[in-house]
Design goal:
The chain has 143 residues and is mostly helical. It has helices at 6-9, 14-25, 33-49, 57-68, 73-91, 99-109, 122-131, 134-142. It has a domain at 31-114.
Length: 143
C-alpha cells in the first residue's frame, strides 16, 4: 500500500472516514476527555478573539504567556500537555517540536515549589473516625 495525498484521501469511502474519526476521538483519555476538549476550546476561542488563523510557535508562546499570568507553572504545563495532544489529534500540529515553547515553560517553572497535600496515617484516620464530631463530620466519615 502507498501513502496517499490529500486529493486521493478524498476518494476514501465515507464509512471509512467516519470510523477513522471515531478512532481518532478515542485517542484522548476517557476520564479527562472533557478537560482536554475544554482546554482546546479555550485556545480556539482565544485564537478567534485575537484574530489568529494559524498555529505556530509564536502563537503558542503568546497564548501560554497570557495563561502564565493566571496559572501556576504546574497548571501551565498541564494545559500545554492537553493542548499539545488535542492540536495533534484534531489539527495534525505537533507543538512539542517548538523549542522556544519548551524553554518558556521550563523558565516559568524555575523556583516553583510544589505544594504536597498531607496524607493521614492509620492512627490519624482512626482518631478522626472515633473522635470526630458526627454532627459535623458524619458525611466525611461515611465516604
Amino acid at each position: 500500500m502507498e501513502i496517499c495525498s490529500e486529493s486521493e484521501a478524498e476518494m476514501i469511502p465515507e464509512g471509512i472516514r467516519e470510523t477513522a474519526k471515531a478512532a481518532i476521538y478515542e485517542l484522548l483519555p476517557v476520564k479527562s476527555r472533557n478537560r482536554y476538549e475544554l482546554v482546546y476550546d479555550l485556545f480556539q476561542k482565544w485564537s478567534n478573539d485575537k484574530n489568529v488563523h494559524t498555529v505556530n510557535e509564536e502563537v503558542i508562546l503568546a497564548y501560554l504567556m497570557e495563561k502564565s499570568n493566571i496559572l501556576k507553572p504546574s497548571s501551565l504545563w498541564s494545559n500545554y500537555s492537553m493542548l499539545k495532544s488535542t492540536l495533534n489529534i484534531k489539527n495534525n500540529i505537533d507543538i512539542s517540536r517548538y523549542p522556544k515553547v519548551n524553554a518558556f515553560l521550563k523558565r516559568k517553572s524555575i523556583g516553583y515549589k510544589l505544594k504536597k497535600s498531607k496524607v493521614l496515617n492509620k492512627e490519624e484516620i482512626d482518631k478522626f473516625l472515633s473522635e470526630g464530631e458526627d454532627k459535623i463530620y458524619l458525611m466525611t466519615k461515611v465516604i
